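Design request, tokens follow.
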């Protein structure tokens, strides 16, 4: 265990504590602390002792007494808890601290260059996921300093954080003096918390975090899988097309393929396009200013190529191709201006889909074009049939109207025959007028 952490613990034990049971109030030198014992600070805000983390599993820790859930602020053996029988913490006369009787996946540490980093250590892979490599590149103008010779980091009670590699941040409630803690949570995100009184109880509120997009944290979904997140359903892991999940209880194991890729040039593979999908690292090489077809050929020529990233870089003005031998830390983001092309057998994938496969992924551009053309052809056929039916109905209607008019002209209506449409006066023939006037005689 890091000696600086022990020094911090010893300072807390020697300057703050008073024993809850029978120990001396100033020091534990020459004695031990058992599972059932604890130390309480003079102001009553802190306790130190064995903190339960499971069934008959304890870790030596320091925690807040005020918070409703007794929030732990430091833990000595979080990766290797001890049992409740015979375990004890001892301070020897010469000042050595010994815990009688580690498997977390995430670690915050200073590397060999004294740069503060986040590391994921999983069952199948290990990956540095913060900061990004280009942040500490000496050729880039960045705020991280890889040339410092010290290793220290301080979170002030005002909400300001600074580390020796020149990494800084301000909490959202900066300026308010309160209890604070910096925690590497189980999801791999580093967060700053402030202790606040809400609705009459003390609780912790997040005031800063490294990642606003949870899928950028490595190791969440494991190899050959894809992480997606939204505000409604949260974070979701899914297998790539043609893959199945290895362990439904632990997504960090990722997915395994249900197909095999042949290196036989007579049986070339094809590719499935995944829009706005990015896979971190594991590049075989990088090709600049290359076409999509050439990038596909580069991947086909390598038996270990699992797919490639194809992205247009605005600053350079052309596309880059990144063939990959391992698909890890994959995530979907609408803001990512690039696509990933998954290598699959030439015959394609099985139509059967398992629940753990992503249903929202898009197929390749070729398949999308074929599907769109088929849809348009069906629409044209439907329009032609509709026009034919309407035209036939119109022709039949015209014929029926013509026959009706023809029949009406042969058998005029006597009532309508004797009236003019313009003035509604009755029309008489010459013979009718002569007969009615008796030869046109005056009355």
């Amino acid at each position: 265990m890091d000696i600086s952490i022990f020094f911090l613990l010893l300072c807390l034990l020697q300057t703050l504590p008073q024993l809850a049971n029978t120990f001396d109030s100033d020091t534990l030198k020459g004695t031990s602390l058992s599972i059932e014992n604890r130390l309480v600070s003079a102001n009553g805000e802190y306790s130190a002792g064995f903190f339960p983390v499971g069934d008959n599993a304890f870790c030596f820790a320091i925690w807040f007494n005020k918070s409703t859930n007794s929030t732990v602020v430091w833990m000595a053996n979080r990766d290797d808890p001890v049992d409740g029988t015979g375990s004890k913490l001892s301070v020897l006369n010469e000042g050595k601290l010994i815990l009688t009787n580690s498997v977390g996946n995430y670690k915050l540490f200073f590397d060999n260059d004294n740069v503060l980093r986040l590391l994921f250590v999983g069952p199948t892979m290990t990956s540095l996921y913060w900061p990004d490599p280009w942040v500490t590149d000496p050729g880039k103008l960045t705020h991280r300093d890889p040339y410092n010779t010290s290793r220290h980091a301080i979170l002030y009670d005002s909400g300001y954080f600074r580390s020796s590699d020149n990494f800084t941040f301000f909490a959202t409630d900066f300026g308010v003096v309160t209890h604070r803690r910096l925690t590497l949570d189980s999801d791999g995100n580093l967060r700053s918390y402030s202790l606040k009184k809400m609705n009459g109880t003390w609780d912790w509120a997040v005031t800063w975090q490294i990642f606003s997009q949870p899928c950028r944290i490595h190791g969440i979904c494991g190899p050959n899988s894809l992480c997606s997140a939204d505000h409604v359903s949260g974070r979701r892991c899914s297998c790539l097309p043609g893959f199945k999940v290895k362990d439904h209880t632990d997504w960090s194991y990722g997915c395994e393929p249900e197909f095999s890729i042949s290196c036989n040039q007579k049986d070339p593979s094809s590719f499935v396009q995944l829009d706005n999908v990015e896979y971190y690292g594991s590049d075989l090489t990088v090709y600049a200013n290359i076409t999509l077809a050439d990038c596909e050929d580069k991947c086909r020529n390598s038996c270990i190529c699992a797919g490639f990233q194809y992205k247009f870089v605005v600053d350079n003005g052309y596309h880059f191709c990144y063939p990959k031998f391992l698909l890890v830390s994959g995530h979907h983001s609408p803001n990512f201006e690039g696509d990933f092309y998954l290598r699959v057998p030439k015959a394609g994938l099985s139509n059967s889909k398992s629940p753990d496969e992503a249903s929202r992924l898009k197929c390749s551009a070729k398949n999308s074009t074929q599907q769109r053309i088929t849809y348009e052809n069906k629409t044209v056929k439907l329009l032609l049939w509709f026009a034919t039916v309407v035209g036939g109905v119109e022709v039949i209607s015209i014929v029926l109207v013509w026959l009706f008019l023809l029949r009406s002209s042969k058998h005029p209506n006597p009532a309508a025959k004797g009236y003019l449409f313009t003035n509604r006066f009755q029309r008489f023939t010459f013979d009718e007028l002569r007969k009615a006037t008796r030869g046109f005689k005056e009355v």
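Comment from the thread starter after seeing the answer: thanks! The radius of gyration is 41 Å.
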